[in-house]
Each structure stands twice: as structure tokens, then as C-alpha cells.
Design goal:
359 residues; TIM Barrel; 2 domains; 8-stranded parallel β-barrel; binds phosphoenolpyruvate; binds manganese (II) ion; 3-deoxy-7-phosphoheptulonate synthase; transferase; 3-deoxy-7-phosphoheptulonate synthase activity; CM_II_prokaryot
């Protein structure tokens, strides 16, 4: 009895090996078919042919497996085969690290983003006045921060809220930045405004609400200056990376990605900072990856640990909102740091040893 069981097990093992060999032989043929289909430009999935194969198989089925079971087993084989064909011909994205193993390093004035040093981007949520910009710019200059942010076109939730100073805001930002020798970043919301951006600012920001505004992405792809793309409020990383590809495919590969929190059920923060996005985006793409600690938390009290977490996870930089008098700010009053709070944060970041400054 025992010998017989052993004998049957040996037989089964042999059949398994044969099945394995046959399955892989089949997979090779499937791959060749995939090649031909790719060249002919026909879809890999052919439901009519799959049904015909299943019918042929069940018509020859003498059991003991029932037709439904045979169908189930072969459907799994077909599924795995289709997956194999799709994997073979998956389009390699321009932004993919598989396409370019080395980091993209973006030069903005004398600042390098995505290289061995990290960057700090700071400034008010919105451009409001010359005095406001000058007080922030002078602090940034003294602190050694090279890039100042400030929104001129504000995508606000309510149409009744402050919408930004528009072109006038960009002009003010440029004037003050030039006075203090800083580079600038500001959000652009209309495809027709790319030339305006080239004229007044150094980096185009595409906001979270516009991450999948494809016409805007295409226009930014034709612009001659770098782009900072924010992660959409409810965007997956796959969607985020594809949005960056929209810009890159048009020729502008100077794209930086910024995690700015995603919407979850959590209410103690404005959004949920997805730290895992940092190593994943660094792994999947060759683009610089930054973290906006202000919009991801919507708070002022946990920015240092969040910034440290971002840098420890491999972020190339941090963005933070600073306003000389946050209480009177025309947008995001609750989350903007005042100047002493910014200085304290900056000191904490520098002391952490996680922020490598450019030489
Ligand atoms: C901003 O940075 O000013 C802004 C509006 O951010 P987000 O697009 O991430 O909401
Ligand atoms: Mn803001």
C-alpha cells in the first residue's frame, strides 16, 4: 500500500515536470505571437479566439475534470499569457528610472535640485504686497535659502476667495527676487500663460488641482523652464508619474515631483502626508522628489518632524509656506509660519544633519 502511494507520487511529480515544461514551451510561443501582434499593431487580447480555444478544449474533454473546471484552468493560463505579452511590450516611460538610471539634476540659477544636496523652497502662499515679499525675501537671503515661492494665480476652492494678483503678482515676485538674488516658483493655471512664466519666474508650479489638466501639462512640456508638479489631491503614484510623463514627452524633462499630501479620512491634518511616495518615486523615476510639509499637514506644529521624515526618506528638498503676518494672510492663514517660526524650523532642519547644503 505504502509502496503504491510512493509510486503514484513519483508519477505525479513526473507529470508536474512535464506540465511545467509544456507551459513554458507554450509561453515561448505566446511571446512570439505577442511580437507579431505588436508589429501588426493588433490588440494582444483576443476574446473571440480565447472562446474558440475553450470550446475546442471542452469538446475534447473526457474527464474526470468537468468542462467548467477545464475552462477555469485554461482561463488562468490565458490570463498569465496575456500578462506576459503585455509585460514584454510595456512602454518604457521617459521619466522611468529604467529608461535613465542616473538622477535628473535640475539647475535653477546656481541651485542644483536632485543632486547630492537638498533644497529648501519657502515663501508665502500668495503674493500679496511688496512689503510682504520683501520681508520674506530678506529672511530667506540671510538664511541661505535660494528659492522663494509665492502664488499669483490661486486655484481656490471658493470663487469668492482671494484669487491672487495674477500677472501683477508675477511681476512683483520677479522684482523682489531680483533685488535679493533669489530664484522663484509660482503656480501657472492656464496653458496660455507659459510664456508669461518664462518671462517672470524660474520654475513653473502645477498645482494639485491641475495634476491631470492634460492641456496644461502639455503646455508646460513645451516651456523652456523647469516644472514642479504637485501630486493630485486623490492621485495614485501611477497617475502622478504618468502626469509627469505628459510634460516630459513634450520635450521638457526638467520636471520635479512634490508630494503634498493626499485626502484621507484623517482630520487632524489637512491632508495625509504619504512618506512612502518619496522612496517609491525615487525608485521608479529619475526625477527630483520634494515634500511640501505645509499643504500636506495644514499645520505649523509638526513641520520639523515631517521635514526630517521627508529628508530621511530620500527627498531632494522641502517646501514650506512663510508669511510675515500669517493671521492677515489672504490664503492658507492657518498653516503659514511666521518668520521666527520659519527660522526655528530651518535651524532644526540644518541641525538634524539630514539636509546637505550645496557647496
Ligand atoms: C500652493 O502650493 O500654493 C498650492 C495651492 O498647493 P496645492 O496645489 O498642493 O494645493
Ligand atoms: Mn497655500
Amino acid at each position: 500500500m505504502k509502496d503504491h502511494l510512493e509510486e503514484l507520487r513519483v508519477k505525479l511529480g513526473g507529470i508536474n515536470k512535464e506540465l511545467l515544461k509544456l507551459l513554458n514551451e507554450r509561453a515561448e510561443i505566446v511571446r512570439n505571437i505577442g511580437e507579431i501582434k505588436e508589429k501588426q499593431g493588433v490588440p494582444k487580447f483576443d476574446p473571440v479566439r480565447e472562446r474558440a480555444m475553450l470550446e475546442e478544449l471542452t469538446s475534447q474533454n473526457n474527464g474526470p475534470f468537468k468542462d467548467a473546471e477545464i475552462k477555469h484552468i485554461f482561463k488562468e493560463i490565458f490570463k498569465a499569457s496575456l500578462h506576459l505579452q503585455e509585460e514584454d511590450h510595456k512602454k518604457l516611460l521617459i521619466v522611468s528610472r529604467k529608461n535613465q538610471p542616473d538622477n535628473t539634476v535640475i539647475k535653477v540659477q546656481d541651485c542644483l535640485i536632485g543632486g547630492s544636496a537638498q533644497v529648501m523652497i519657502a515663501g508665502p502662499c500668495s503674493v500679496e504686497s511688496y512689503e510682504q515679499l520683501r520681508s520674506v525675501a530678506s529672511v530667506l537671503k540671510d538664511a541661505g535659502v535660494k528659492i522663494m515661492r509665492g502664488g499669483a494665480f490661486k486655484p481656490r476652492t471658493s470663487p469668492y476667495d482671494f484669487q491672487g494678483l495674477g500677472v501683477e503678482g508675477l511681476r512683483m515676485l520677479k522684482e523682489v527676487a531680483d533685488e535679493f538674488g533669489l530664484a522663484t516658483i509660482s503656480e501657472i493655471v492656464h496653458p496660455a500663460h507659459m510664456e508669461l512664466a518664462e518671462q517672470y519666474i524660474d520654475i513653473i508650479q502645477i498645482g494639485a488641482r491641475n495634476m491631470q489638466n492634460f492641456e496644461l501639462l502639455k503646455a508646460a512640456g513645451e516651456a523652456k523652464i523647469p516644472v514642479l508638479l504637485k501630486r493630485g489631491i486623490a492621485a495614485t503614484l501611477e497617475e502622478f508619474v504618468h502626469a509627469a510623463e505628459y510634460i516630459a514627452v513634450k520635450g521638457n524633462t526638467n520636471v520635479m515631483l512634490i508630494e503634498r499630501g493626499i485626502r484621507t479620512y484623517e482630520k487632524w491634518t489637512r491632508n495625509t502626508l504619504d512618506i512612502s511616495a518619496v522612496p517609491l518615486l525615487k525608485q521608479e523615476t529619475h526625477l527630483p522628489v520634494l515634500v511640501d510639509v505645509s499643504h500636506s499637514t495644514g499645520r505649523k506644529d509638526i513641520l520639523l518632524p515631517c521635514a526630517k521624515a521627508a529628508l530621511a526618506a530620500g527627498a531632494d528638498g522641502v517646501m514650506v509656506e512663510v508669511h510675515p503676518d500669517p493671521q492677515t494672510a489672504l490664503s492658507d492663514a492657518a498653516q503659514q509660519l511666521d518668520i521666527p517660526q520659519f527660522q526655528q524650523l530651518w535651524e532644526g532642519i540644518r541641525k538634524s544633519g539630514l539636509f546637505k547644503e550645496q557647496e
